[in-house]
Structures are given as C-alpha cells and as structure tokens.
Amino acid sequence: MIRSTSAWSAAEIRQFLGSAAIPVRLACLATGGAPLVCSLWFLHDDDAIWCATPRSARLAALLAADPRCAFEIAGDLMPYRGVRGQGRARLSRADGPAVLLRLIDRYLHGRDSAFARWLISRQQDEVAVCIEPDWLTAWDFSARMPA
Predict the structure, then answer these.
(1) How does DSSP classify residue 13?
(2) Strand-pair category, 43-45 with 35-40
(3) CB 119 within 8 Å of CB 106
C-alpha cells in the first residue's frame, strides 16, 4: 500500500494524517472523463480517509457512478510536504451524520459556533465518503526548504 519511493513510513503517514487539520484535495472523474477536484475536511481512521458531503452534491453522484479517485493532503506553506494516493470511494448514508460531527469537532474544535450549528442542522442530508487507498506515498522537502 505504501510506495517504496515514499519519504515516510506507514507510521509516519498515519501520524501526519492524524495531525494535519487541512483539507484533502479529492479528485474524481466527471461526466465525460474530465477530472474534478474538490477540497473537503477529512479524518483518518482504520487506514481509510473519511469525508462528508451533502448527498445531493455533484461529488457524491460522480463517486457513486465511478468510485475511482485520487487525493492529496498537503499544506500550502513551506516546507512543502504531504501525502497523496489513489483509491476507491465508498458512500454511506448511514455514517454521514456521525462523520460530519467528528469533522466538526476536528476542524471547528466544538459545536457551539454558528457555522457548526448550521452544519449540524443539515447532518441528516450528509453522506460519508470513505476513501480506501490502493496506494499512498509521501513527499517531504523540509530538508531543503526553510519553514
């Protein structure tokens, strides 16, 4: 699952994915085969990447039609480093509300803000996106880039 050229081990990748509170850039195939990239909140659990999106979202329809996807989790500031890979997405309506609450806790650090309450008011419309990676790799330019 981890490419031999990866800058990090599986344990280092798990640690990064567990601590990086930045969006995942998720790519899927749109109608006609063109790529579509969406940024979503994510969490890493049981070697899968979990996101949530409204079940009416175009992304949900595209992943339901073709579960193949690619992803990248990397910050925008130096030193550049991150994780990327390819896999298959599985949608779960049953897990959508619970995953959304976990994402709110991870990114908003609580459920008391107006934005959190708005998201929670829509949680029954959320679908969980579980990305099961076929492969992962990491890159890390820290040694040659200042922070």
Answers:
(1) H
(2) unpaired
(3) no
Tokens 């329809």, located at residue: 61
Q: Find out whether 17 and 60 touch, Cβ atoms under 8 Å.
A: no
pLDDT digits (tens, 9 = 90+) for 31-86: 888 999 999 999 999 899 999 999 999 999 999 999 999 999 998 887 889 999 99
Structure-block tokens of residue 141: 């330019």
Tokens standing for 94? 């049953």
* pLDDT given for residue 30 in this prediction: 93
Which CATH number, 3.40.50.10860, 2.30.110.10, 1.10.10.10, 1.10.3860.10, labels domain 10-138?
2.30.110.10
How far apart CA 37 and CA 16 sit, in angstroms, is: 22
Give the three-state DSSP class for 129.
strand
Q: Structural domain boundaries of the chain? A: 10-138
Task: Please list the residues that pair with 45 across neighbouring strands.
Answer: 48
Amino acid of residue 62: L
What is the arrangement of strands in the sheet containing 24-29, beginning at the earlier edge strand? 35-40, 24-29, 68-74, 81-92, 126-140, 48-54, 43-45
Residues in the chain: 147
